Amino acid sequence: MTDPWNTGALDLDAYLARLGVSAAAPSVEALAELQQAHVRAFTFDNIDVLLEDHPGVGLPAVQEKFVGRGRGGYCFEHTTLFAAALQRLGYDVVRHLGRVGDPLEAPRTHAVTVVTLGAERWLADAGFGMSPLGPIRMRDGAEDDTGGWTHRLRRVEGRADGPTWELHRDRDGHWELMHTTDELVVRPVDLVMGHHMTSTFPTSHFRRTLMITRHLDGCHVTVTHEHVTTRRPGRPTELRPLRDGELGDQLDALGVPLSADRRAALIEVAARLPRS
Questions:
Q1: Conformational region of residue 233, where left means phi above 0, alpha means psi within -120 to 50, and beta covers everything else
Q2: What is the pLDDT of residues 174-204, one digit of tens each?
Q3: Could you tell me which SUPFAM superfamilies the record lists for this protein (predicted)?
């Protein structure tokens, strides 16, 4: 049996230990526990892109970074690791790509995991900047409210790339589009190409903006080189400027393990990024 995603390279026990969960037979409940643990364990960030020494999105490199060092990354890395763990645990897993922004204009620079359990499919997106804490049933209009965060899926027909799924989140009382996922076949090289564009294209958002996000107890925090955004379920979003000299404190608050040299380098790079 072939293993194109190299899932055999995963140290599953070490991954589960990093998350603080035990192996369990595939079920919706076990999937939900694993997704929430993964999202809470690792930051979503583009630190390695800005430092221009990204190790790539192959499973061994992602595993060493996430499981070995407790670091985080962005969607291609999260999905590589999360999907591999699900497969090793016996889940029926398919990887798909999505578009962040206008689905008619945006490139396919997001990666998600779709899991089939019985007769149902579930969107298990563990690698977005503000990922849902649990899987969402793939039915038009399906909603999920985990930890007070409400998300909705909408199925859209009639587009050139076939049926697509729009993920929305409830943002201060209205639905905000997060991303649009298609159902086209995805192979490992597609994640490599998406990562290459995202991490090297001169106008890529990830090359021009520092982004570090994490779900903390009762809130979600996003830190950029300009702002700190705090979101709490059912409460207005709080946005304030990042104070001079504050980035180091925010790295500590979000639990980003960096060596002294890399920490200093990141602070220096962030200070040079364009301001709005």
A1: beta
A2: 899 999 999 999 999 999 999 999 999 999 9
A3: Cysteine proteinases
